[in-house]
Amino acid sequence: MADPGEIKNEEEDLSADIKDWSKHQVKQWALKEAGVDDKFADILLQEDIKGSSLLLLDKTDLTDLGVTLGPAKLIIHARDELLKLRKEHPTSSVNQSGRPCKPYPFHRYHDTCRYTENSILDVTESGASDYIEPCHEYKAFINTSDEDKMKKFTTDVIRFAAACMNSRTNGTIHFGVADKPHGEVLGVHVTDKEAYGKKLNDAINDYFEHKHKPAAKMCIKPPRFVGVLNKDMTSSGKCVIEVDIVPDSMICKENIYHIGLETKKAKKKAKRKETDKTETKQSNYFYVRDGSSSRDLLAPTTNAKPMEEYNKFVDRLPQLSQLRKQAEEKHLKVIKSSRQGSRLSQMITGGSNSLDKSHFERYVIVTNKSHSIQLESMEFLLELNPTAVLDFDPESAKNGLQWHFQEQSTVNVHLPVQYKITEGVEDIASKLKLTRNTSWVFCNGGINDEAPSDIENWFTDKGASVRDVISFLCRKDVLPNKRFLVIFLLLSAVSEKTDPLVETFSTFWQELRGTEQIICICENENAFTCWKDLIEARYGINISDRCIYELSFAEVNGTIRSLLSENRKSSRFLPCGGGSKVLFKKKVERSLNSLDVLCVNQCEGGNEDKIVIEENFYKGGKVSWWNFYFSEQPGSTPFIKRDKFDFIVNTVIPELCSLRKACVLFNLMHVPGCGGTTLAMHTLWFLRDKYRCAVLRDSNADLAEVAEQVVKLLVYDHEEQLPRVPVLLMIDDFEDMDKVFDLQQLIEKECVRKDIQSSSPQVILLNCMRSESSEQNETTAETVFIGNNLSQMEQKQFEQKLVEIEKTHKNAETFYGFMIMKKNFLPEYIQGVVRNTLKSFNINQKHAQLIAVLVLLNVYCKGASLSVSLCEEFLGLQPKPFCGSGSVEDGFGKFSTFISIVSVEGKVVFKAVKMIHSSIAWHCLQELTTTHNVKRVEITNLLLNADKLYESTQGKDKLMHDVRYMLVKRHHSVEEESQFSPLIQDIASESQGLEEMVLLNASKRFQRDAIISQLLARYYYLKKKDFKEAKDWAGRAKDLSRENSYIADTSAQVIKHELKNAIANYKDVPIKPEKLNIFLKMARSAIDAFKETQDLAKKESVQRLQNKTRQDNCPFNTSGCLGEIQVGVIVIEILKKTPIFSSGNVRHDVMSRVLSGNANSGIQEVERHDPMRNKHTHYYSILRQFEDVLYNLKFRMKLNIDLLDNFYVNLGSRCGMKDSREQVARIELFRCFKQYADLFCKTDSADLLKNKTMHTMLQVHHARQSLEFRKADTYCGILSCLSNPVSNLTEMMEKIARQYEFVLANAADSSVKERINFIYVNVVLSCIKPGSRQLQPYQKLLDLLSQVLRGQIPLSDNLPLHFIAVALLWPQQHLKPAERRSLGRYVSQMRTSYHAVMKEVCNGKRPVVHFFMGKKRGYERLVHFGEIERCVRAGQEQIASMWGNGKIWKEKEVEELLCRVTGEVQGNLILADTCIPDVKIEITPMFRSQLSGRAKGSKVSFFIGFSMKGPLAIDIN
Q1: Looking at the DSSP assignment, which residues form a beta bridge with residue 1424?
Q2: Which range, 41-45, 1152-1156, 1229-1233, has the best average confidence (pLDDT)?
């Protein structure tokens, strides 16, 4: 039997601090850890060596005490190793106690509780209390050598287990928890967890009696390894080993448990013996719990009756067993059935008990450290699709909740600092994609090298930025007021009052003004109690009724998922090749956040309310997929099929699929409210199993991102399978065709980037666009028009559908959207409905004001709406965070039948109110102005002045955009360039003069908006002729936008119009000198201002071209060039009214020479020859002050005229359509050029023209002036004859040819430019009149071209020369060898010249293809586009569409006309074959996507088009 004191010492844990060791503990350490003999350990005891003394000892001290060298070295080495270990694994000192924490839940293995290093378990080592509450025992387990660890573990567990079983109390023994400081979590490193369980099982077999081994194995639970976190919540790699003891009364009954423990006693040995021998002795022990320790009742004692205490305990055992049994029964009664499942369902849906119809539109999750066990129960988060997750686990991305969530869904990872308001709130939300994907906010570091913080430092390090996140999310202009729910998901227990989650709760509670929008889900009741107590202690509120804690996370997961319809839970599928389907993974679907993807099994298994959905649609709401689905169910009549439906499905789309472009387009033009969008969506629904169908959610989305997502949808799950199922993408509400073309181009580029082979269309764009005209447009294979006039067949379908509607709906009379179409858009019907509904209208009532604002917005800004939140604020409604709390429709009263609720995809996604039909809105506005005398100006001023509409609510930015659009957006046409927006013009017509007040109110609402200031400047100079005020507003606009060429142009226009006005108001002729001075000063200022506009325009254009991150296709702003030309014309008009230049042809010629900057015709020279110079002295004095303007006038005008001609002739719109504003500008340029030509391009005098003996040089001069008069002095002017034919074009071109021939034959100074122009004249004449006698022989023309190419070529002539050289010298058998070899160089030089000449003006434009290579020889080898147009015989819009889709090349006559060339693919280029085997020419494809997926060296065929940018490969096959 071992000595009791010795056993006690063996049990006793050593303090973490060596200084605290007693002399007995030092002896124990020397025996066990240093491994010395008893006699040397006894020396340390006898010499009173305590822990503090041990630290001071060295080897000499020990040998002086009688310890031999070997043991002395062992003692010193063991001490130093221990000190080293302590340094590497420091623990908190007694004075710096850790924070309290709860022990791991008893008898549980899959809970997620973890300890934090140095925290203090808030239970003490104790004995039995109520038998059920476990007693605890702590073992530091860090001073034990690796060899002895397992032995100590099993011995301590067996001793503790026997004590608990005998005492019939539950218990837990903890390894890695210090006794001093009491309960401090230290943690231990465990490499082989299985070994602990195995060794413990072996120990039970070794130490318990045979008959009790089964009971012991049932009562002693397997070891549990509880993870230990660092203070900053990252993993430490350590754990606490815990063993639970559960002496169940059914197992233990009335048994008693003795154990046999081995003890080691060293024998006395000889001094020189090299090995120590020990004997092992089996001793019998009977342990019970006695206070905080286990005591052996069989230990030797000085008591007279040594067995008395043992016997008493054994006698009392039946009673002890009975007490245990009663305690177990009492504990079972406490466990009650939970009703929290139904509570959770109510709280998380706002009372609807269905997530499909939840009151809450958005969810925000706040969570902390997760455990791997919990992750499998977190599927409900995927279904909630939270807007934001505030995650306090720094390792979440590594192995936590974020990592798990991102495996299944799309997330955007953020740091809190990204939510700080540094710009517009909705701009920040848009950049963060806040309402499109889940925003995962790491609130305690863990990403982007952001280090985590512990609890003590979190508030100072990260607290402020997390508060910014919460404040941002709770703003009314970010998430819908009272319609989002914050869920505190406590994955780890919160036990500290300074825990970041407590602070986070406080911030949400304050921002949301209560807990109605907050729920807390805790893992168990202990976690809940701790959380509730912390909140109550700190804030004095009881959150019990907002907490769920009786459900496991598995039950929470099941409960929430049960609230989904089968449709939401079921898998969704996309079509694949051969009629197969592929699973559409949720993660992929959510990553395509710009698209509403229509699946093959859309709506199946849904439980949507058919009555509600149909009512919304028939009232005038937008159609949804459910409407098509319901119409296909048994008992329903089919969805109304419009007449154009079959044409689109059976003709348009199949024909498009036969084309060779990656992305093709067709347009569905429709009058608003006539069912165009519904027809487009019906087409998608019908074709959903043949195409991958999707709708673009937001027409203002980033188009590059949209293109990326479209291609991702295209290639999803069949990258290798060819051909792919094409994507059919519906786009709606684009403002102009340029934007549609931008998207088409970006999709093509993305196909190229992904190397997608496109021998057939991969993406079909169904462009659903409003038509400004209600008149029937031609329906073509590329454009379908839907007007407001139903056919008889369509009317019949509407009548049949009405019969069905009246059977199932009680309020069919309010289905105005349906009835308007059923009545075939009858104005009298709409007018009657409007008049009846608005009869009680009173503009002083809030809901009347709001409907008036909605009406105005809808009439002047198509698709405008007001957010639900904004309407609630304006109407004073107080929304509640639960269902049935009153709707915004109720707030509109009788007018509610005119509105519908829609989802708006803007910078943030939000619910909004809009008018049900554009016709209703228009008639409402008419009714308000006529019957109720509420004019447009009154409604507009209400809209601009009502601050309540612009407070921080959802949709504020959208409203600002729509209001600004109404004020600013002008409608342009070729016939008339509108000066102001339709709203401003209508207000001016209806309430003349009051438009000024509207614009001034607009400037107050949009104080920092340069465009509004520009609008006022335009108003004052155009309407009011108040140029001082106009200059002031133009200056304000310029201050707000210094680098904007359009703003600069307004300043220039103000001066120009002031000059024109001053001249118009001045009636005296001739002009007086002082007025001449004023006019020329103004002209100089205007010219300088227009020059500034030109510089800014060029700078903008180059910047757009160089911007690689964001494509900006805004074209070059030509207004500065045209403006300077216009001022030049005004200056000419001014000078004509002066006596110096006003009398007769001679004076006209003098002015021409002066303004040409002729060295011999300066102002002084004119004055010297003026017989009336004394009378005109003042005029000459003033003119000399403006020599800089006058001498450069012709040069500057000609420079700008040529630049604009170059721009208009060589560059076309990207979509092939003519820009109405550009056409207006070209008409004005023609007017100005006529003025220019009348002055500068006429022969000196009529008398000279009659002179038969006129000198040859004068005739050359005459010819050159004549050529310039016809714009034939530039290659651009000559080429323009092909696109702008005039009545006598043939005669004119032949005359031009004769004049050039004369000039080249007789002018000694003929230029390279004139010879190049002569070549162009012959080519153009050959296109206009192939058999003309004025045509040079083709070979002679080629000889002239070769001659020019061999000579010196001015830089300015490089581009036109090399263009025509490439077009004419394209390899033919009769070409000379040198010309064959040089063609590749000409192509290269042409491309270089194009970039040099056009880089400042080419952005947003495409190079015009002037000629195509035909099959014939000679002149006829070049085919101009006019011939192709004649083959097609279609309107300009249709030709543009056919060009864009490539369908034009399939026309039989076109194919017969053009020559198809072969070549081989070389990356992004083609090496074109020629008739000469060794000559191959590099060609750029017009559409690079046509080369995608083709291997290098692949053979292709194509047509060749010649543009100034180089030859293009067209219709690649």
Answers
A1: 1411
A2: 1229-1233
Short-list 559, 570, 569, 605, CA closest to 348: 559
DSSP state string for 575-620: E-GGG-EEE--HHHHHH-TTEEEEPTTTTTT----HHHHHHHHHHT
Residue listed under structure tokens 């004191």: 5
Which backbone phi and psi does 1358 adopt, to 5 degrees?
-60, -50
- What would the two tokens of residue 1165 be? 């020279």
Which of 399, 364, 322, 660 minimizes the C-alpha distance to 520? 364
Rounded Cα–Cα distance for residues 88 and 237 (Å): 14
Q: What are phi and psi of 1213, to 5 degrees?
A: -70, 150
Burial of 14 per CB tally in 10 Å (0-12, 13-18, 19+) = buried
Q: Which residues contact 908 (CB under 8 A, 6 or more apart)?
A: 426, 429, 430, 434, 435, 477, 478, 954
What's the CA gap between 805 and 812, in Å, rounded?
7
Q: What b/e sequence results for 690-723 when a residue is b if at least 16 CB atoms lie within 10 Å of its CB, and e otherwise? A: ebbbbbbbbbebebbebbbbbbbbbbbebeeeee
Helix axes 69-88, 38-46, angle to 10 degrees: 70
Whether the bond between 723 and the residue before it is cis, its omega within 30 degrees of 0, is yes
Which residue in 1366, 1356, 1279, 1262 sits closest to 1317, CA to CA? 1279
Residue 1314: what are its φ and ψ, rounded to 5°? -70, -35
Contacts of 1169 (CB under 8 A, 6+ apart): none
Q: What is the mean pLDDT of the chain?
A: 86
d(CA 636, CA 1469): 56
H-type alpha helices, 1187-1337: 1187-1190, 1193-1210, 1220-1240, 1246-1250, 1256-1269, 1275-1283, 1289-1306, 1312-1328
* Residue 1161 binned pLDDT confidence (cut-offs 50, 70, 90): confident
- With 70 as the cut, is the pLDDT of residue 1146 above it? no
* Amino acid at residue number 1072: K
Q: Residue 78's beta-bridge partner residues?
A: none
pLDDT of residue 1130: 95
Task: Quote the distance between the C-alpha of residue 351 and its chain's center.
Answer: 33
Give 481-513 as a 3 state SS string. CCCEEEEEEECCCCCCCCCHHHHHHHHHHHHHC
**pLDDT digit string, tens, across residues 846-856:** 999 999 999 99
Q: pLDDT tens digits, residue range 1327-1339?
A: 999 888 999 999 8
d(CA 1011, CA 993) in angstroms, rounded, equals: 21
Three-class secondary structure of residue 138 per DSSP: strand
Q: How far apart are the C-alpha atoms of 403 and 397, rounded to whole Å?
A: 5
Better pLDDT: 1043 or 28: 1043
| Angle between helices 1338-1350 and 1358-1368 in degrees, nearest 10 | 140
970: left (phi over 0), alpha (psi -120 to 50) or beta: beta
Let me know: does 494 contact 890? Beta carbons within 8 Å: no
Q: Which residues of 233-253 are buried (b: 16+ CB within 10 A; e: fewer)?
A: bbbbebbbbbbbbbbbbeebe
Contacts by 528-534, CB closer than 8 A, 24 or more apart: 530/102, 530/493, 530/494, 530/495, 531/490, 531/493, 531/494, 534/494, 534/495, 534/496, 534/497, 534/499, 534/502
**Residue 459 contacts residue 503 (beta carbons within 8 Å):** yes
Cα–Cα–Cα angle for 65, 69, 72, rounded to 5 degrees: 65
What's the rounded Cα separation, in Å, for the pair 365 and 376? 17
Give the length of the chain: 1517
- Which of 1487, 1417, 1507, 1407 has the alpha carbon at shortest distance from 1459? 1417
The closest of 1052, 1005, 1001, 1010 to 1031, measured between CA atoms, is 1052
Mean pLDDT for the stretch of residues 94-112 = 71
In the chain, what percentage of residues exceed pLDDT 90?
43
Burial (Cβ within 10 Å: 0-12, 13-18, ≥19) of residue 1355: exposed
Whole-angstrom distance, CA of residue 168 vs CA of residue 253: 10
